[in-house]
Amino acid sequence: MCTYRRKEKIELRKQVSEMTHIAEKAARPPFCLFCGKKTSLCNSHIVPKFILKNIDEKGMVCYSSALVKDFDDIFDSKKGINNAFTFHLICRECDKKLFAHYEDPRSILEFEKLDEDARKVILIEMAMKTHLAHIFRKVFSYSIFSRLYPQEAQGFRGAGIRTGQEIDNEEHMQYLSELLQAKDDPGFDFELLYDKMLDYDVGIATQTIIAYVYDLKGNMLFSPFDHERAALFKYFYLMILPINGKTRIFFYIEKENLPKVKNIIEQFNALTEEEKLHFLFISLIVYDEQFYINPVLLKTIKKDKKLCKLFVQADASSGSEKNCRKIKNFRKYNNYLRNQNPQRQYYN
Quick one: pLDDT band at residue 333, thresholds 50, 70, 90? Predict the structure, then answer.
């Protein structure tokens, strides 16, 4: 990225901010995606505010995009927790009704004490929120594309060509409907591959979906460039939730899909506990488009040139085969989910 003079930086940031604001408004549907009512849409957090408060510094958290060199020349890397990756797809009534269980701090702190049905509902609600965030990101990205390349976007529409984003969002909307019904389906369940309450705050928070392109031996699981309707068997859920000086981590998949991703699950289960945590962190770097970092921890990670290069390559290539394959070499990178200094605290 070029180094801009101060005035040019300010003007560029202003232009990007205006375009982002317009794109965000365009990404909002005229009705709630769940109840269908034409009403105001709420400012919904993908990661609950009570989680973000555990990694903030003076009310601010940083986006993972700040790991990209010179990112601050164009974008604001810090956000107040009230506006840290929010989306507008559902109304306030649906937001409260659909996510009441997992957005209760006790659900995270006392998860292992809950009965099986209650645990299932919490995992479903987290998965639903993550799919909604994924949909909003895709719509927002296409809104940006339409403004940068209006002729190309019009060409797609004029030719009646469905974009990969449209196919992807239809798939996620269909699965959202299935997840909603699954709350009352005794035959539906998730397999928790990793459920730990770490006794320290990792300084990182996320709720994300991961579709591993390669397993830990470098064997391809599916092609990321196949835009035909794909089964959602490929999706894993990774939740990293700091709370009260500790960190709850969930890594899970729909139980029905276990046989379809058998190899990578067996490989993950064969890892030591420390290796599992290490693998999950590098999965975050390779596959997560946006996670949150405590501002103090961010300064430390930005000094790790090797890790930042991996993040930039994966982000720039949107999950290219070459960079997704690097997940098998996760041990070669530093693991910032590990408590390397028991005295550290990244929260206020």
Answer: very high
Give me the amino acid identity at 17: S
Please report which helix (H) or strand (E) contains residue 210, including its range: strand 204-211
Look at residue 346 and tell me if it is in a domain.
no
**Separation of alpha carbons 103 and 228, rounded Å:** 35
Burial class (CB in 10 A: 0-12, 13-18, 19+), 290: middle
Contact between residue 114 and residue 90 where contact means Cβ atoms under 8 Å apart? no
Which tokens is 171 given? 């798939």
Domain that holds residue 74: 6-332
Could you tell me the pLDDT band of residue 4, with boundaries at 50, 70 and 90?
Answer: very low
Query: What span, in angstroms and rounded, lies between the C-alpha atoms of 247 and 124?
Result: 20
Closest of 245, 254, 259, 327 to residue 294, by C-alpha: 245
The torsion of the CA quartet 74, 77, 82, 85, rounded to 10 degrees, works out to 80
Query: Residue 283: what pLDDT?
Result: 96
Residue 270 maps to a domain:
yes
Tokens found for residue 10: 């300010």
Distance CA 291, CA 99 (A): 20
User: 3-state DSSP helix/strand/coil percent for the chain, to nearest 5?
Assistant: 50, 15, 35
Q: Where are the alpha helices (DSSP H) in 149-252?
A: 150-158, 164-182
Q: What is the pLDDT of residue 142?
A: 57
Whether 338 is covered by a domain: the verdict is no
Query: How much is the pTM?
Result: 0.86
- How far apart CA 68 and CA 258 sit, in angstroms, is 35
Nearest to 281 by CA among 326, 330, 242, 322: 330
In a domain, 342, yes or no: no
Q: Which amino acid is at 331?
A: R
* Helix locations, the chain, DSSP H: 6-27, 49-52, 92-98, 105-109, 116-148, 150-158, 164-182, 262-269, 273-287, 295-302, 305-317, 321-324
C-alpha closest to that of 145 among 155, 132, 130: 155
**How many separate domains does the chain show?**
1
Half-sphere exposure of 302 (CA within 13 A, CB side): 19
* Residue 324 near residue 93 (C-beta atoms within 8 A): no
